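dude i think i finally got it to work??
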Amino acid sequence: DSTGATIINYDKCIGCKMCSIACPFGAISVDPLTMRVVKCDLCSGDPACVKFCLTGAIEYVTAHAYDLKRQRERITQMKRILRGGA
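look at this
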């Protein structure tokens, strides 16, 4: 999807819960009332959790921006290693 969120296609979901087991972030769970798998869909690009986090601990960034940040961190780390200060 355009927000970078992974969306569940309930027409194809068979309820095996393998996605919940495999998710490294623990972001997929089962709704105890419907017994359907649910996960964050980033509120369609406007995550409510970001707005309501009083301390600002949650930040919404696009997948592209996150990738750029990780690349910059790796470059900085590589420069440190090359300078001999691992």
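The chain has a mean pLDDT of 80.
im so relieved honestly
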